[in-house]
């Protein structure tokens, strides 16, 4: 039910404050821009109807993701996007809330809704093997002296992530980019572990699936991992890849991932888009990535965390978890020390939003309508290579909804 309505002025700032009345109380949010979400080489890949990949590097998508807290509420957490109006998730000590625009556009009224479970269907993670598989040898054999400085758990670590949306997912959501990036705000839960998740790429299977996506989750994970190594690894540098699928996996399974495989060729997982609220799917993504980072399911009452449920609980709760348990932290520490996954220590080149656009470099940047490369390279009839503007009568030049230079009608 709608709890309150807030009028929202659209601004993009490094820090923001919002005051609103929720549940009969005045609250004030303090937000800061998430500068560690997109890397400088972040790219989006779509496919034309004949299967040709089209990759662009949009420059205006990193301005609008924020995280923060509510003043005088130590239990609070806030994750928001200002990309298309104000939307996101926040929790107070007493209640969880969603905030959404009442209508499209950046200005106008927004509804604050209590987050309530709309489904009683239980959902679980499909991982049952709770030990590292002997088939995956240690990633490096180099020993590391404990006297050589701060432990790996204490050091800053970075996971360079590629998200892949399958064809069912694309057909379900018109604004697939914003839907997927909304899921990422849940990955703030890694911050207390000194781990930052940086999105380096978004791959959208807009024409058809590149693998056989089937209801048995294990078969789909194997197929996705094989594709990651044969195709994705050759076109996009990354540490980890996850498939977000519109299929309904067998049984109550909504996710599956390999355990302790980050920085290896099995650094992958799959997630079913099991809830129309992107934030709930994001919690599943955080869980499956936890497996890649060596975390097992919390199977003991000794696995304590703040809140009613922990991220690595085997049964995924609709009470969106906000922290890892003490057991998960121990698992992660063991993985870091036993496997020495050095790719986590590579700091990405985070995007500088003030970089100067260059027409002809093949990347769609601020002020450009399109960029098809140099005059010699350009084969796109919708784009003028010299000016980086659309050709006469063209409505678009690339993307899932662009067909023969026209925006495809929604049927």
Give a quick summary of the entry.
The chain is of the alpha+beta class and 411 residues long.
How would you sum up this structure, described in words?
The protein folds into 3 domains: 2-33 and 64-114, no CATH class; 124-345, Collagenase (Catalytic Domain) (3-Layer(aba) Sandwich); 356-411, Echistatin (Irregular). The chain is globular, with a radius of gyration of 22 Å. The protein is of the alpha+beta class and 411 residues long. It has 5 helices and 20 strands. The chain has an 8-stranded antiparallel beta sheet, with no helix packed on it. An 8-stranded mixed beta sheet has the order 5-4-13-12-14-16-15-11, sandwiched between helices. Zn(2+) binds at residues 287, 291, 297. This is ADAM metallopeptidase domain 28.
The helix fraction, in percent, is 10-25%
The CATH homologous superfamily name of the largest domain equals: Collagenase (Catalytic Domain)
SS-based structural class?
alpha+beta
Our count of helices gives 5
Question: Care to count the β-strands?
Answer: 20
